[in-house]
């Protein structure tokens, strides 16, 4: 992941890397900046923002969370389910 300060006009499609309060609306850190976000930041007089861009070898945060959750389920939950099934009927 590459972090950079960019002019707002060049940040569409980048990942928002910090918090800014805009008239009580708060663009979330980590969201992908759309044309609407860029227009709102420009109207607020913000000229530069900190952004992040994924490199080819990077994985998006949402995809990483899903992969981690699936792995944890296999490691933690499935063995517990197998143990509960065996312990209930007494067989292996």
Helix-strand layout with pairing:
Layout lengths: L1 E6 L7 E2 L18 H9 L4 E6 L7 H29 L3
Residue runs with pLDDT of under 50 for 5 or more positions: none
How many domain units? 2
CATH T-level topology of the largest domain: Molybdopterin biosynthesis moea protein, domain 2
CATH architectural group of the largest domain: Alpha-Beta Complex
Shape: elongated
Run of helices and strands = EEHEH
Task: Determine and state the CATH class of the largest domain.
Answer: Alpha Beta
Structural commentary:
This protein is α+β, with helices and mostly antiparallel strands. The chain folds into two domains: 1-56, Molybdopterin biosynthesis moea protein, domain 2, CATH 3.90.105; 59-92. 41% of the residues lie in helices and 15% in strands. The protein is elongated and about 55 Å long.
Give me a quick take on this structure.
With 92 residues, this protein is an alpha+beta fold.
Keywords, please?
single chain; 92 residues; alpha+beta; Molybdopterin biosynthesis moea protein, domain 2; 3-stranded antiparallel beta sheet; 2 helices
């Amino acid at each position: 992941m590459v972090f950079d300060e960019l002019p707002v006009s060049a940040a569409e499609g980048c990942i928002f890397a910090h918090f800014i309060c805009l008239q009580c609306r708060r663009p979330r850190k980590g969201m992908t900046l759309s044309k609407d976000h860029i227009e709102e930041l420009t109207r607020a007089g913000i000229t530069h923002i900190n952004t992040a861009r994924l490199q080819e070898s990077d994985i998006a945060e949402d995809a990483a969370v899903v992969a981690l959750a699936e792995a944890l389920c296999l490691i933690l939950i499935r063995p517990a389910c197998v143990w509960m099934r065996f312990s209930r009927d007494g067989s292996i």
